[in-house]
Amino acid sequence: MAGGIRWTSPFAWIVRVIRVPGEERRSLIQITKATAAAVIAWIVATAVLRLPQPFLAPYAAVFLVQATVYRSVRGWAQQVGAVSVGVLLAAAAGQLIPSVTVALGLAVFTGLLIGSWRAFGDSGVWVGITGMLLISYGSATEPVLLADRLLETALGAAIGAVLNAVVLPPLHGERLRTATSRLASAIGDVLEETAHLVRGGDDPEAAERLQERMRDVRSLVAEAEDAIGWTRESRYLNLRRGREEREEPLANLVSLWPPLAQLIDAVSEAVQSEQPIQPPGEYARGVIGELLETLAEVARSGDSEKLDRCRSLVEELDRLLVMPTDEVTTSIGLGAMALPARRLVQRLEAD
């Protein structure tokens, strides 16, 4: 079986690239652009500028084809800045320190220290590495070679950043769509299970299973927040940003998490313990159960007619809460469930 997976997975990956505009296709596009950027940078550096050993040009080009256009532009500034500081550091060490060993050690230490500055980001390590390479190659005392290294890096980084921004600039709509679908389905399932638990009465094991499902939902909420962040970043400086998916439906689903968690806690408390919260009466449980089932349908589909039904059921819960009753603890249990249920309806109305 393991051998079958190894042989069939590449084929399945290619099929998904062709059939589905998702993560696999985006990865293939980025890989192709990185390859093209490296080749173009090498051709320009060798055939046009005739730079000697311009290995930094294709290297920088590959690393500047980033997941978003914004990261490519920011990475270009950070990479060029880090290499520039590294070149100056190597030049100073080469001129002032006769010993190559001492100069190399000082350049690495000072470069890594300077590179830890937040403004350099992930490129900060190249301050020390650039200084080390130039000193070890014997280029630190030759101004022309130092200038060549800086030119190679700026050229390669610029080619990678421009290619990433102009040719099919990356968007993350598929991540947004996937996260929306998964979270909506998970919230709908949890609401339906909660409705079944409310109607079924005393079932501590079911309450424990529901808590486990809620941890799954929390994980999907974190994934959704990450997808929203990537989507927002991918719009910056992106020529295709007008075609991106709307993030509001997913953001609205994420906003359901706090009242959903409160509702599950209230239901679990009512089911697992006798005091201070007891389950409401049979009719009230039926109203809450129907409300949760209807909310599940709205979370999955956004059906406005179903949302109208949710409002009516919330009004019925309000009526039950103000009715005179001798069952004080039952009223407490009903109120504990009704408040987060109302908030769920309000959040879905905002969509």
UniProtKB/TrEMBL annotation:
It comes from the Bacteria. It holds the Pfam family FUSC_2. The chain crosses the membrane at residues 28-49, 85-114, 120-138, 150-171. The keyword Membrane applies. It is a multi-pass membrane protein. It is found in: Membrane. This is Integral membrane bound transporter domain-containing protein. It comes from Amycolatopsis regifaucium. GO terms for cellular component: membrane. Keywords: Membrane, Transmembrane, Transmembrane helix. InterPro entries: Memb_transporter_dom. The keyword Calcium does not apply. Residues 41-162 form the Integral membrane bound transporter domain.
